[in-house]
Structure prediction request, 196 residues.
Amino acid sequence: MQKKSKVSEKAEINLLLSKAQKGDDQAFSELLSMYEPLLLSMAAKYLIEYDAREDREDLIQELRVAFFSAVRGYEAEKSEVEFGFFAKICMRNALVSRIRSKKGHGVEILSIDEVSELRSSDEPDTYLLELESEDEVRRLIDENLSEYEKRVWILYLEGKTPKAIGDLLSRDAKSISNALSRIRAKLRAAVGEKNT
Prediction:
């Protein structure tokens, strides 16, 4: 069976989004099914990195609510990012809010050193995904990355490996790894300027 083209997959997602936004429960269920692997991997990573005592089903339910909010809030005709990236931001923000809430109630999730490490991570997407506004994320990326780098970065944030990105963009994996290093350096610099 042939894989769907990127264009037809995007059109299918946009059609399902349109239906789900109008209250079609079946369309929402199909979208959730498509993005469930992302949701479950984010939940697993949270449980491993932050709080293994957490109730897994409660966490998954909270991420489903964030996904539902992403479906309701996504505007395909206005957005410059694909829905998968937007949904990932919304779910990551829900996890960040959960961490902040627990810390506010005296539950120590991360030590001060770990928080500092999180902020100065070699993965600036950690900071980017905490930003409250999609417009701010878009502005930071638009002002600092070339068109090619934007495509590479978005595919990377969608969970694709350098090899998979290279296959999509007709480049070798080493070229993509080099581009990701440049992108991280640019975004680290941009995030550093924003925090000063």
Q: What stands out?
A: The first helix runs from residue 6 to 21.
